[in-house]
């Protein structure tokens, strides 16, 4: 929900999974962030939380978050962090309408300070300094991977905002920097009876995948392929190399 427009110069989307290996330091959730009912959302069997995380109290900066638990045995499931960058050029209107509904903002515990302007997908009010948009994500990704956390980077192969070739090259360079060998040579993967994209893996930890026929917003353009990819990621499986593979169970 936070658009990092220019920050998304190198990566479209990064998904990271963290397995808390039986550690107890993760304290519960702030109950006041529990989303009791989200307008328009059908009845769901999982708990969801939304609110702000303070990142800089001195200058009053917070980041909005949305957290969804697994429907069953959430305490045993890995934690997935989804960092979504990029501008969405197509679905601005419906989002703008929905996220400006007072009852939606109330349900999500958003806009607590009653800002004097509307929410929009992309705003110049955040006023990122140009120099910030030049900060590379690669050192951070490297640290995450060095802590043995699997990272998948994916890109729609019809993304004309951030063409996938640049991301693919950068990921290959990152793998080289980590001294990773190619554990899966670049090949196609399947969804139902069709090629759904291409995938490669380095050091059994770093995966780069494309989604065929998807543009900048992958789940929007190719929802079934995106769900299949996401479900393989969450289950710690590689993307299937044949057509005889259950969709997402
Ligand atoms: C915040 O809330 C106020 C008052 O309800 C509303 O007028 C404004 O458009 C909202 N702004 C944002 C950024 O959500
Ligand atoms: C960002 O980096 C590019 C390439 O190194 C450089 O040309 C540009 O001036 C930088 N922009 C800012 C605002 O630092
Ligand atoms: C990769 O290998 C080179 C040469 O052996 C070494 O200097 C470097 O520290 C290694 N990098 C990592 C991230 O392990
Ligand atoms: C296809 O994937 C399966 C499961 O990961 C693996 O056992 C098999 O060797 C792969 N086949 C080819 C041709 O890569």
From TrEMBL:
SUPFAM superfamilies: alpha/beta-Hydrolases. InterPro entries: AB_hydrolase_fold, Peptidase_S10. The keyword Transport does not apply. GO terms for biological process: proteolysis. Pfam families: Peptidase_S10. Residues 1-28 form the signal peptide. Keywords: Signal. The keyword RNA-binding does not apply. GO terms for molecular function: serine-type carboxypeptidase activity. Belongs to the peptidase S10 family. PANTHER family: CARBOXYPEPTIDASE, SERINE PROTEASE FAMILY S10 SERINE CARBOXYPEPTIDASE. This is Serine carboxypeptidase-like 42 isoform X2.
